[in-house]
Amino acid sequence: MKILVTGGNGYIGSHTVIQLINAGYEIVIVDNLCNSKIEALSRVENIVNTKIKFHKVDLLNKEKLNQIFEDEKVDAVIHFAGLKAVGESVEIPLHYYNNNVVGTLNLLEVMKNNKVSKLVFSSSATVYGDPHTVPILENFPLSATNPYGRSKLMIEEILRDLYKSDNNWDIAILRYFNPVGAHESGKIGEDPNGIPNNLMPFITQVAVGKRESLAVFGNDYPTVDGTGVRDYIHVVDLAAGHLKALEKLVKNPGCVEYNLGTGNGYSVLQVIDAFKKVSGKEIAYSIVDRRAGDIAACYADPKFAKEELGWEAKYGIDKMCEDSWRWQSQNPDGYE
Ligand code: NAD
Ligand code: UD1
Predict the structure, then answer these.
(1) CA–CA distance, 120 with 332 (Å, rounded to integer)
(2) Is 213 strand, coil or helix?
(3) CA-wise closest residue to 155 among 175, 138, 129, 141
(4) For residue 50, how many C-alpha atoms fall within 13 Å in the half-sphere facing its CB?
(5) What pTM does this model have?
(6) Tens digit of pLDDT for each residue in 85-131?
(7) Which residues lie below 8 Å from residue 92, measured CB to CB, with a gap of 6+?
(8) Are the C-beta atoms of residues 135 and 301 closer than 8 Å to each other?
(9) Which of 146, 301, 317, 321 could form a disulfide with 275 if both were Cys (CB 3.0 to 4.6 A apart)?
(10) Which domains does the chain have, with CATH numbers?
(11) How many other C-beta atoms can be found within 10 angstroms of the C-beta atom of residue 130?
């Protein structure tokens, strides 16, 4: 089976491509490198010991995208490509809507023209907004609080409408919780531009000496120790979920949403503790005000994915910290 992977050079895409190749899938990557380095591709090729077909193409370039589909004759698409920084999406919303929503519309039209009807889409737990209760089930109400989240929600709605209009489509909407960790080799991992927005890369950069101290955003939430609770999931587990979703699409399930999380929530202070334990590094931190838009607790009920996809997360918080730290300590400046 031949799979076109948009955004396949990014953090989650690169980890997924490794597993796809190891499972015998033929791969074509389409990525414009707006948020990834070509070095990541070389590292992936080194890990799987194979040359990978790569097109440096923007999803906004519909003609080029269509040409790739005509040439490659793929059977399914995994669609990772998108911009993902919440703060930036508030500052430049049109750019986010254009890249994420219009990019996806182009992809869907090109897929339709080329009779490709199987799609795995990267959605996010952000579509649950501020959940009324946790753990979160797939049928909880959906909402968004920022342009990034709204772009994911819009795309989800577009996909559901598309399926309603034509039942030949098979679409797995994967709602990721908080991806962390890295490939066990330490060769690939998350390489944020500038100051990291997310917790784990910030912690690893403090540990490696690139940042002085972590700002913990609030300790007055109604949680175990007052700091925010999230469902961190190892990127290797997350990648495995995409292979299970592809296997499901072959059985014509229609358009279905799945939570990909572990079902366990950890507070910021618990993550710092786990990280200290596995790395032996002290993490300097101070408590500051809450970050606007943050919620107290967010974790998945992952049982639907287990029942329907036969997928569940294997790795716990210690392994997530251990692999994040191996990547950061072996590559203090990421792919630079
Ligand atoms: P990433 O930025 O590392 O990877 C995305 C890739 O898509 C990058 O290589 C980028 O160059 C490429 N890309 C972006 N816009 C493109 C375009 N118009 N044309 C071609 N390529 C384009 O991000 P990631 O963490 O691997 O996330 C992958 C997907 O998962 C994204 O859609 C993201 O919104 C979603 N997601 C990520 C997280 C997370 O915390 N990492 C959580 C939930 C959902
Ligand atoms: C963020 C995004 C969300 C996205 C998710 C995964 C926001 C408001 N939300 O969510 O849309 O889907 O990433 O990419 O940006 N924390 C600190 N100090 C830091 C960084 C984070 O205390 O420097 C805390 C946060 O308050 C939160 C937890 O750590 O409680 C996790 O934060 P983060 O990694 O940014 O993920 P989310 O807030 O879940």
Answers:
(1) 32
(2) coil
(3) 175
(4) 15
(5) 0.98
(6) 999 999 999 999 999 999 999 999 999 999 999 999 999 999 999 99
(7) none
(8) yes
(9) 321
(10) 2-180+232-261 (3.40.50.720)
(11) 12
DSSP element (H, E) containing 6: strand 2-6
Could you tell me if the CB of 14 is within 6 A of ligand 1?
no
- Pocket residue to mutate for ligand 2, from 80, 197, 220, most atoms within 8 A of Cβ: 197
Amino acid at 68: I
194 dihedral zone (left: phi>0; alpha: psi -120 to 50; beta): left
* Structure token pair of residue 102: 């219009």
Question: So what's the pLDDT on residue 49?
Answer: 98
Region 175-186 average pLDDT:
98
Contact 172, 256 (CB under 8 A): yes
Distance CA 237, CA 315 (A): 7
Nearest to 288 by CA among 311, 268, 261, 273: 268
The question of whether 148 is a catalytic residue gets the answer yes
The β-bridge partners of 27 are: 3
Compute the distance between CA of residue 25 and CA of residue 186 in angstroms, rounded to an integer: 23
The encoded tokens of residue 194 equal 């500038």
Q: Residue 39 C-alpha to ligand 1 middle, in angstroms? A: 16
Tokens 């992977």, residue located? 5
Burial code (b: 16+ CB inside 10 Å, e: under 16) for 286-301 equals: eeeeeeeeebbbbbbb
Q: Ligand 1 centre from 83 Cα, in Å? A: 6
Handedness of CA 229, 234, 238, 241 (dihedral sign): negative
Burial class from Cβ neighbours inside 10 Å (0-12, 13-18, 19+) for residue 167 reads: exposed
Instruction: Please state the length of the chain.
Output: 336
